[in-house]
Amino acid sequence: MKRTAIRAIGAAAAIAIAATVAPLAALEQGKTADGVAFMSGGIGSGEREQLARARDEFSLQVVTAARGSGAFLAAVELKITDAGGRTVFERPLEGPLLLLNLPPGRYGVEAKLRGQMQRVQTTIGSARREIYFYFDVDTDVQPRDAVPR
């Protein structure tokens, strides 16, 4: 009986640890072929906190959310081109937040979700830039998951 109880407690602890660590595994980080460092994620408060701590190390922050509710959105297709039209970043986002360390210059940033496309121009300089893309999607959201406006 004691042995079974100990195994059950051990299994429960392993599940609790896995549930805590698993959300962090979705945080994607790396470098593009051109050596541009990036982090993408933000699904869950742990990832958002990790990205917030790293934010000052990056020159651009992109946030994707639902118009109206502010619910965070993942799987947005993002493409960034430099002033010469060369693609410097292109991939679906792992979460609603993307941090990139782009060198100074002008960039076009394009975001696509469910047939909607938005494009903005931005200039990267000495201060971090932030871009917010809001899409028209049906979603319910808890206030803690909303993007502040």
Descriptive overview:
With 149 residues, the chain is an alpha+beta fold. It is 23% helix and 38% strand. It has two helices and nine strands, in the order H-E-E-H-E-E-E-E-E-E-E. The chain has helices at 2-25, 45-54, and strands spanning 28-31, 37-41, 60-66, 77-82, 87-92, 97-100, 105-113, 116-124, 129-135. The strands form two sheets. A five-stranded mixed beta sheet has the order 1-2-6-3-9, covered by helices on one side. The protein has a four-stranded antiparallel beta sheet with strand order 5-4-7-8, with no helix packed on it. Strand 7 and strand 8 (116-124) form a beta hairpin. The longest helix has 24 residues, at 2-25. The radius of gyration is 19 Å and the shape is globular. The N and C termini lie far apart (55 Å). The model is unreliable at 4-25 and 142-146 (pLDDT under 50).
How are the secondary structure elements laid out?
Elements: H1 2-25, E1 28-31, E2 37-41, H2 45-54, E3 60-66, E4 77-82, E5 87-92, E6 97-100, E7 105-113, E8 116-124, E9 129-135
Parallel strand pairs: 3-9
Antiparallel strand pairs: 1-2, 2-6, 3-6, 4-5, 4-7, 7-8
Summary of the model, kept short:
The protein has helices at residues 2-25, 45-54, and strands at residues 28-31, 37-41, 60-66, 77-82, 87-92, 97-100, 105-113, 116-124, 129-135. By secondary structure, the protein is an alpha+beta fold.
